[in-house]
Amino acid sequence: MATPDAGFPGAEGAESAPWAQLEAPARLLLQALQAGPEGARRGLGVLRALSSRGGEPFDWGRLLEALCQEEPVVQGPDGRLELKPLLLRLPWICQRNLMSLLMAVQPSLPQSGLLSVLQIAQQDLAPDPDVWLRALGELLQRDLGVGTCIEGASLLSKKCQTQLQGLCRGLGQGGRRLKSSQAPDPEEEKSRDFEQPGKRRKESEEEPASPEGNRAPKRLRCWEEEEDHEEERPEHKSLESLADGGGASPIKDEPVMGAKTGKDGSSLEDAKGLAKSLELPKAIQDQLPRLQQLLKTLEERLEGLEDAPPVELQLLHECSPSQIDLLCAQLQLPQLSDLGLLQLCTWLLALSPDLSLSNATVLTRSLFLGRILSLTSSASRLLKTALTSFCAKYTYPVCRALLDPVLQAPGTGPAQTELLCCLVKAESLEPDARVLMLGQILELPWKEETFLVLQSLLERQVEMTPEKFSVLMEKLCKRGLAATTSMAYAKLMLTVMTKYQANITETQRLGLAMALEPNTTFLRKSLQTALKHLGP
Length: 536
Fold this sequence. Notes:
By secondary structure, the protein is an all-alpha fold. Among the domains are: about 25-130, no CATH class; about 280-445, Serine Threonine Protein Phosphatase 5, Tetratricopeptide repeat (Alpha Horseshoe); about 465-535, no CATH class. It has helices at about 25-30, 40-50, 60-70, 85-90, 90-105, 110-120, 130-145, 160-170, 185-195, 220, 225-230, 240, 270-275, 280-300, 320-330, 340-350, 355-375, 380-395, 395-410, 415-425, 430-440, 450-460, 465-480, 485-500, 505-515, 525-530, and strands spanning about 70-75, 80-85, 175-180, 225. One of its GO terms (cellular component) is centrosome.
């Protein structure tokens, strides 16, 4: 991303600021992001202050769209005019804090708008791009599950990797060295902080004091390797070769998406070989037999559902998403019975601190996705309880790993649709969780099953901004001609016209009239009656 005007507050007047033409809330937010290293925190404070006034929620969709708007600017010594989006015209400190803020509030952002912003950030052709901005962008891309990401690749630049390795060696004790090639990515810890703002991981336990009086933090203990053993193990040089010109290499918590070639000529075939060589940390490998025994035990009994989680599960906090995926496969979590699934979810929900969103997404996919897609009859009570309780705490991971894939899967049938309808109507869901689910559904292409799930969701009187309601009405009206015989569509329209009558504008009412004109279901008269009640 560009580093245009290195400005703090006061570097340029309000009239000449790039955001001068934006609406007042957006201007206030971007001005707060100018506050140096404290900018992201102040931005969150602005959002809280705006919401506390009881007005409309902050319109992220409009701001993200404005960041992508191009305007002519004078560039270079020759004074040539170039089209440049607002995002790349912001001062560098504002760009950094904006990326940090977007990461903190990511679950509430419209995915399409966020993707557009990230694409513009990637297209920046500045000769000296800010590597910190690039790393933040890569973290956001990884969480969204987009782009060509290489499992095991580091977000750290070559220089940073070299400095980190030197630091690890310097922290070694008693003839031992800290080895970073088997360590969890330090950037993963940073992403966890952003993924769940306001929560802090507990301080790591400390080792007993050494004879020299020094203590080694728990996380660093995972990195310790005997010096002679380290020299025997070949270094993963491809981690450095995959770094993007001193910037950050992509990292992803899902399988590699196709065989493309990196900027430096490294192919994904090399990355696949690297991924195969990745192993679980030794501390976790040592606990595998114990974890397998725990899973076997919970398959056989229902007692103890309220028990505290076993201490072995705390090791999940030490894993990256790719390591969680590997651990799930080795423990054969998709093969758990519904009884075992409920017990395991009870333990996972009791973990403190909470799982990161990335790790929770991988666990959701492993525990539920295959199980739900393979349903041929109604889900068991145990499965419904496990899913709704997990979704109540980890709504975004469930939306990302379940709601979208199941609704778009070609084999989705009555059993899957019934379970999703049960999920979106669950009493345990907070209003914000339903808003998030609605946003995810609005991003998807709609089909018959989508109508059923959406109707179940909207029966709960979801609170929507005018912009989001406008998107809903636009998609509903467009589907009218293609769903003339659909009972699910007719029920959805009836729900919207009765429960959201006060939200419907005159223009939207005319759109509904056109959409309902060709309807041939037996609900046609009820729909026309509801439409008349919307009259001026």
